[in-house]
Design a protein that fits this description.
By secondary structure, the protein is mostly beta strands. Helices cover 9% and strands 36% of the residues.
Amino acid sequence: MKKLIIYIFLLFAFSSLLFSQTVVTVGNGGPDYLNLKEAFDDINAGNITGNIVLQITDNCTQFGTAVLFPTFYLGNSDYTSVTIYPVGSGYSVSGNVNGPLIDLSGATNVTFDGRVNQSGPPDLIITNQNTGASASTIKFSESANNNLLHYCIIKGAETGASSGVIFFSTSSSGSGNDANTLDNNFITADAAGRPVNAIFSAGTSGSENSGNTINNNNIYNFFNPGISSNGIFLSSSTTAWTITGNSFYETVSFVPAAAVIYNVLQINNTSGTGYNVSGNFIGGNSALSGGSAWTKTNGSNNTFYG
């Protein structure tokens, strides 16, 4: 009987530890952190631990890249999961950085949920207003695994052929950036300009970006008028992605400024296998190929690949 009581006590203690949360606020008005960079820096330093919840309570202005490293980074950080969501409507995480606005550098079990209190339609805006070649809004790097980005409005204006609004990058160790999911997001241009790639992946040989899922997203107004550009471009060292149920469209007639090539979905990788591409919608001026036809003006002679 005594052993049973001790077992139940230990089980209760372990369960409480497993499901306990550390909740902090993030926003220009504080009181805990002004932006994600400050919060991520404290997580990396081990000052916030366990199952961490970052509640967006106001607009967040980023003045540099918010980098989240893996748990036990340099022996300091100790987190099980990180969940980020807004508690009010109309909030944004924004900055002007010629680099990633947010970098999940080896981070795991991170969830960005753009719904207010994790319920309802997409609401949180995450945007990098920089038009530089190295700019991106969210970057997965250094074997970032099992992260979820859903119900967010993600904007960018990067102009680099080897970057993207959402950028799956290289890894110096580990298996690559694997098993990450983009689900039910709105991915589009920032007011500063059109991107070159809405989603771009170029991994590392031996650490390929594999097993990622792009599902049920609205990817729209993403072609750059004067630069060859792509909705999704899966380049080198990328394999076995699932791309299903996404909608690609332009909300108004598109006006190109040069005779450049446009690809909605480009898989340009001789080593990659095991792709599942199905049920996507290309065309229209709203989701699911809805509304009127996707059109472009005849000012330039453009090659178009679905």
